[in-house]
Every structure is written in C-alpha cells, then in structure tokens.
Amino acid sequence: MERLEIGASGIHGQGLFARHPLPARKKIGELRGELIDLAEAQRRAYGSPVVAIVEFDDGFALDASRDGNELRYVNHSCAPNTYLRLAGHRVELYALRTILAGEELTCDYGETQHAGTLPCRCGATPCRRRL
After folding, report:
1. Is the dihedral of CA 73, 74, 78, 79 positive or negative?
2. Nearest residue to 71 via CA among 115, 128, 5
3. 4-107: what fold?
C-alpha cells in the first residue's frame, strides 16, 4: 500500500505509519494471513511475546504473522485512530478519524491472548496499563 509505510514505533518494535492523510471512516485495507483453527492459534500464541492473530467467533482465526501484509504492524493503543471490522473471515481496518501524514496507525486490540499479563506501552492518557 503506497499510502502506508513500516517504521520504528514509539509504542513497540515496528509500526505502520500514514504517508499521506487518511480520511475519517474510510477503509484503509484488509489484514491478510493464514486462516487456522483456534486450537492452532492458541498453540502458536502460547509463549510468544508478539501475537498477530485475530480470532473469529466460529472457531477459526487469522494468523497475520504468516502470509500477512503490512497491516500486521498496526500496534495497540487504548486511544486508537483505527478500528477492526470482522466480516466473515475477513479483517478490515478503518480510520476512526482523519489520520495525519506521519502518524502511526493504532487499534484497540481488546481482549488478547496475553490475558492481562502484558504491560501496555501505548502511552495514551486513558491507558488501561495491561493487554
């Protein structure tokens, strides 16, 4: 995606940044990855410090660390500028508000495989402190 670039994140490791302004409420893209069942997702996530897996309600999950695209670099924030929309086994990313050029894209991960054991590093004023 020519509108986005991967770079060093102030939140964690690598992040995804807007190269140009992204309008509010517009679709940014679709997360790619390997579709796997939940048991395999839990096996892959166990003990891993970085998890790029989105779970669906039907017993499947998308592992963006395998065959994924640049959207896997969207870091968590308790005050995000994007949101995920699940549609079947698709994971779409939308802008919550206008995102400025150079701004890191962030999303609220919600419940994670870390079950509250991982410290949150987002630095947002309303930070929940744990993932």
Report:
1. positive
2. 5
3. Beta-clip-like (2.170.270)
* DSSP class of 73: G
What's the chain's length in residues?
A: 131
Distance CA 9, CA 112 (A): 20
For the chain, the maximum distance between any two Cα atoms, rounded to a whole number of angstroms, is: 39
What gap in Å lies between CA 18 and CA 36, rounded to an integer?
30
Enter the pTM of the model.
Answer: 0.89
Question: DSSP letter at 85?
Answer: E
- % of the chain with per-residue pLDDT over 90: 72
Pull the structure tokens for residue 112: 């994670």
Residue pLDDT, tens place only, 36-91: 999 999 999 887 777 789 999 999 999 999 888 999 999 999 999 999 999 999 99
Domain ranges of the chain: 4-107
Q: Element (H or E) spanning 63, and its range?
A: strand 60-63
Q: 59: buried, middle or exposed (CB in 10 Å: 19+, 13-18, 0-12)?
A: exposed
Kindly report the backbone phi and psi dihedral angles of residue 92, in degrees, each rounded to the nearest multiple of 5, phi listed first. -105, 145
